[in-house]
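G., the chain you wanted modeled:
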Amino acid sequence: MSRVRLSRWLLAIPMSLLALATIYPLLFTVNVAMKTRRDYILDRFSVTDTLRWDNISAAWNSVGMDRYFLNSLIVVTSSVVLLLLLGSMAGFALSQLRFRGSSALFLGCLAGLFVPFQVIMVPLARIMADTALIDTYPGLVLVFVAQFLPFTVFLMTSYYKTIPREVIDAARIDGNSVYGVYRRIMLPLGTPALLSVGILNALFCWNDVLMSLVMMPSADHRTLMVGVTSLRGQYSDDIPTFASGVLIAAIPVLVVYLFLQRQIADGVAAGSTKG
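Predicted structure as tokens:
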């Protein structure tokens, strides 16, 4: 029993340190957001004894955070819907349909995981400018879909491979077409993976700054994360207001993780059991 307790303590100590290192930046941001500018300059690490919500309202109203929030909501929702639709179709085809070149096509999708956006940023921006997609919602949505589709295809393919082939054959014998199998069988069975991929892609798109900044340069079309960075430039000496903007942008992500963390873990684990 002593060995079991010792092993538990040896595991608990580094995990507690990791949890503390993860939570501390959030607590520090909340603490700074509740301070006045004077209190922050005098002692930035002291714990505030008052809750000052005026910093949050100032950050929300000063640079049009409501518009940035709406822009992010439109782009993220459209991107996630397209990613789930295309990713689930491709995952079904690559995992269950037999056709020549499927393995090479899957490897090509995996190769897309290793291409960072910085490598294709300049030529992509020129193409988007030539096609009048710069500073438009469809332009940023297409960039998000192209960037995160390989990850979606990989996870959906891995998950659909866990579904027995006999299920697909039985559905075909019952008279279902390929589309019928996808709509009536694969989509319902793939709900855990779809939920997981949808949440992860929503977080990826929501937290993105570089792609949004390149594709949406004008102030009216900025996303929330880009709006927060502009807040830092406008209030370079007002760190509490900037911290309030960071807190506003982080709240949706924290809510998603808080209520859907089990679905995220279950979906990723289910998609990684075979592939």
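The mean pLDDT is 86.

Shout if anything looks off.
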